[in-house]
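ingest -> validate -> predict -> emit
validate: passed (alphabet ok, no gaps, 743 aa)
predict: started
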Amino acid sequence: MKKISIYMYVLIFLICNTVSISANEENVKKREMRAVWITSVYNKDWPRVQDKNNIENQKSDFIKILDDVKGLGFNTVIVQVRPKGDALYKSNINPWSDVLTNKQGKDPGYDPLDFMIKEAHKRNIEIHAWLNPYRVTTSGTDLNILSDNNMAKKNPDWVVASKAGVDIDGKNIYALYYDPGLPEVREYLLDSIEEIVRNYDIDGIHFDDYFYPSKEFDDKDTYEMYGNNLNIDEFRRNSVNELIKNTKIKINTIKPNVKFGISPRGIWKNYSSDPTGSHTSGSESYYDIYSDTRTWIRNGWIDYVTPQLYWKIGYNIADYSKLVNWWNNEVQDKNTDLYIGQGVYKPEISAEIREQINLNRQYKNIKGSMYYTLSDIRENVSGVKDKVNELYKYPAIPPPMKWKDSNPPKTPTMNVDLNNNFNEISINKNSEDSYYYLIYRFDEGESINLEDNSKILADISANESKVVYRDSQATKGKNYIYAVTALDRLHNESSPIIKATNVKKYYLDMFSFYGEDSVKSSMLSLQKETGWYLEYKEIKNESNKYKIVTGEFNGEENVIAAVNALKLRTGWWATYERSNNPDKYRIVTGEFNSENSVKSGIERIFNEFGWWATYEKTSENNSEQSLTPKYRVETGEFNNENIAKEAAKTLGLKTGWWTSYEKTNNPGKYRVITGEFIGESNAKKATDIIEREFQWWSKYEATGNFVNNYRLITGDFNTKDIAIEKSEWIKQKYGWHTEVKER
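emit:
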């Protein structure tokens, strides 16, 4: 059983402060998806029409795209590699795309996808392969124009001619689509996805909003054959769902690190159709193209969703501000990241992109954006390029997907060598899953805050056992602090290795915590709020420990009240003991790490409480603290396992305690159990909370375990004044005693 031990006052602090709030702006910026769609159909973004059949021009233009993207602060490209049943990659089942050579099926003389992946990864840019699963043509219904190895031409019974839109004169456009309801079509599409995932070092597979083209789709024969007693709408949605579900399974079977995302239309359902829909009145993807995004999210079939919210803030039919709120709620507590599709191809959207991105950043579940399209940004439509450059002034890394992988690489090792014209940073790989490094640079006098992305100096590939980065922007003779972290393929970040150039270093040494879980919990709370690098160390029978002993109190009731007042005001661990005089008691605090700190504590007691107090060294074995017993709380019985399981989850979410459940001696009955509490009084308080908040009967019992002492240590601060300032802040915020020490 996992064990948690923590002071009740720390527990109450965490309960009160672990509410669901929006991340601050800096946190959002450092972990933010910044992607752009690169469209190949119609040769819109790449390759250019004039570069068809020109390998070198196609390559050089794509390199220029990547350099532009990187320079603007983007970290991901979504490249259309299967625009209409064809391929911009080497395939055994899909013909070469005509956007490369002007003729479908003609070998372009190189493998574009392989080239694009390698160039993107050189720059630490993620690249996702964008597929249009069902589209065969953009206009026209003549199968004869397709190459002979096109699966649509080889299997005409897989294909349906359907309305695809209207032209500028208002006339209907018809095109060819694969029939989503045919099992053999779905199998072919899964084989196409497998080809890419198995043969290429791709970061993600991406679908856009092309599913059934309309309700008028002529699939009567397919429905009669495979309808299985569903109505036609249910059958179509189920056909799409089968592809989505099995795409996720296929990818995870081959390469679990590869992400799967979809960019659906921006409205799932309107409120008028479903009270759980958005307050909009536009086209509903659930009904119009059979796109059941909610089901994909709730079943975890997609790793990210990028709704195309291509409307203005305040637009009466589809208000951007209402839709971002709806989608933010839709992914709450789901294993699907939310990125917003920004329609910057519209001048009115480009004009307000700054307002839209800043609105996105107010929502904790919105993890970034994808922009449609690249060419509109490069052409600076309504100043969008300038605005993006400002919004993405400092670099960001894509957010991790903890449900796929949550284990960071080991911390690398690093040396800094000073040269006349640059500082040379040498990094050694300590973990095979290190994919790239982040190098942070801080000036002397700055706190080491790894959440401050303005301090990211560079991101460099970890493809060699040793890599070297030259900081040529360093000012000669100026002192710097460098921090380096290793990140894996899914952007889990290691602890840093920190090196300074001729800078004195200070750290905060805080008071003792009892039990490793207690210090870990406190460390994570402080780390989350400050962004500081932190560590903790076990106190190993140190003899230079001191405790405060107060004067006597008359009667146990009085001393208990005094202990509680002292703990509440200071946050110190404290207890009481009998003195040598009958019916007299005195307070005894937890340990202090130096004589100066214990003297400071005595002064505080005198100033705030008016009590006489002294101090004395603790014993070698820290017996008064290390022998504090642990307790756990048990509830009364629940009538089945599901109820107990839900009760344990509810209790854990509301209190922050570790919880579980177990069978009782009565058949079919279960009880909830919590993790451990330090001392009987804390266990008693926990039962009071349970009975007051949940109305469950509960009790506590001793576990027979005892605790060790730990202390919390921060990372380095670069001046003593900064360290003192942070020390005072911790004392006021948490009530912990801290000392400033020079390392």
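Residues 447 and 639 are 53 Å apart (CA to CA).
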